[in-house]
């Protein structure tokens, strides 16, 4: 069995994300000559800035925390995690798109 199913080939190869650069050299230089690491870092930062946490049922959250704590050997409590900051409009809209539409299967 193939690691990449052929049914996804037409859309996934054609419609890559903003991390993959398919521009020519001149366009790449005009847009800042960003290498792969920089493009990937910017995409991760954009996605983290736009993250909207999902609501979790309090009973489920409590059960998951108890399960994790029960499996700990030395540590007796979970670390406090600060709430995610609210996304800003500029960070959410900063995504680069190719302007091409996805082909319908």
Account of the 3D structure:
- Helices cover 40% and strands 0% of the residues.
- It is elongated.
- The chain has helices at residues 9-12, 25-30, 36-49, 58-70, 89-93.
- The chain has 5 helices and no strands.
- The protein has 105 residues and is mainly alpha-helical.
- The longest helix has 14 residues, at 36-49.
- The chain has one domain.
- The chain starts with 8 loop residues before the first helix and ends in a 12-residue tail after the last helix.
What is the residue-averaged pLDDT?
78
Q: Give the helices and strands as they follow along the chain.
A: HHHHH
**What's the alpha carbon Rg, rounded to whole Å?**
21 Å
Quaternary assembly: single chain
The class by helix and strand makeup works out as mainly alpha
Distance between the termini: 22 Å
Number of helices: 5
**Shape call:** elongated
Into how many domains do the coordinates divide?
1
* Biggest sheet details: none
Number of strands: 0
Helical fraction: 40-55%
Low-confidence stretches: 91-103
Which percent band covers the strand fraction? under 5%
Fold topology:
Layout: H1 9-12, H2 25-30, H3 36-49, H4 58-70, H5 89-93
Which characteristics define this entry?
single chain; elongated; 5 helices; mainly alpha; 40% helix; 105 residues
Short description:
This protein has 105 residues and is mostly helical. The chain has one domain.
